[in-house]
Design a protein that fits this description.
The protein is mostly beta strands and about 90 residues long. It is built from 1 helix and 7 strands. A 4-stranded mixed beta sheet has the order 1-7-6-3, with no helix packed on it. A 3-stranded antiparallel beta sheet has the order 2-5-4, with no helix packed on it. A hairpin with a 3-residue loop joins strand 4 and strand 5. The protein starts with a strand and ends with a strand.
């Protein structure tokens, strides 16, 4: 799990995962075909997007003084499935 900055529950912030290190290990180099984000503790995914090697989500909300887990699951052109989780502390600023 990767830990990121603190996010205010009233703000909207973008979070990105760069998968290029993992995707570049295959030959030929693999790419992302689908990306799905899930979140916990009252947060909401407002916008999701991806490129061949990165996945981005704009997150709003969250429960004050709790950690929010943002989990990104990608499926690649070769049919591989990968998942990573980012932990974000939700705190009123």
């Amino acid at each position: 799990m990767t830990f990121k900055d603190v996010k205010d529950p009233g703000s909207s912030a973008d979070f990105k995962i760069d998968w290029s290190d993992l995707l570049g290990q295959s030959s030929p180099v693999d790419t992302i075909t689908t990306s799905t984000w899930t979140v916990t503790n009252g947060a909401t995914v407002d916008i999701e997007s991806n490129t061949d090697s990165t996945a981005t989500a704009w997150i709003s909300g969250g429960t004050d003084r709790k950690y929010c887990e943002l989990t990104n699951k990608v499926v690649t052109t070769a049919g591989r499935t990968y998942e990573r989780t980012i932990a974000v502390k939700i705190q009123q600023r």
